[in-house]
Structures are given as C-alpha cells and as structure tokens.
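Researcher: Please predict.
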Amino acid sequence: MSYCTTTDVVNATGTVYATATIQALIDMADAEIDARLQAMRVTGSGSALKAASLNLSISKLYTRMRMDGSKTASTSIDGTIQLGENIDQAIATYERKAWKLLDDYIAAAAPRKKYYVARSDR
C-alpha cells in the first residue's frame, strides 16, 4: 500500500500523466522511504509519511518531466520572449521537504536506546 495516492499527486500538481506512470513514481518514492525506515528500525503510517511520500513523488514527477522534455528550464517564444523556471531547484526543494518530514518522524518514533549502567560499588 502506498503512503499517498495517485489522486493526491494529481490534485497537488495537475499532471496529466497516466495513472500507471504516477503510481510507478509513488512506488519509487515509497521504496526509498521504506528503506530509510527499515534502516532506522521504525515502522508506521500517518500524515507525516503521507506528506513525505507526496513531496518525494512530486520531485520524481518533476524529474520525469525534465527528462522527457515536457518541463524545460526555459522556453523561447519567437526569440523575443524568454520564460524560465528553475526546475532543478523545485526538485531539490520537494526532496528536502520529504526527507525533513521523514527525519522528524523517525526522531519521534525511533526506539530509545538503552544504556548499560555499570555498578560502581564493586
């Protein structure tokens, strides 16, 4: 089960990509999230993981758009008008937000370490 849905991604971005493509991007994002959670021995669900998944999925969607040429860094209209966006900055921003949400979730949910206390009376 995905942390976020294809509908969440469509509502957040307005993308017209096929549902299967969006789901594949969500699956990639969720696999990265699951890998980080497993490494930290944390499980769970909830709005923080959904938000992290949505942000990471959007960054993957924008990466896909950049790679297939549907979202370019700049567009020239008749050589007289230049329209530009910093797509790389948008991708990095969404990734940063996703990992911050996940790190905060892990910090709150991680099992507390137990420390051995040696006796001093021996």
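Model: The beta strands are 74-77, 81-84.
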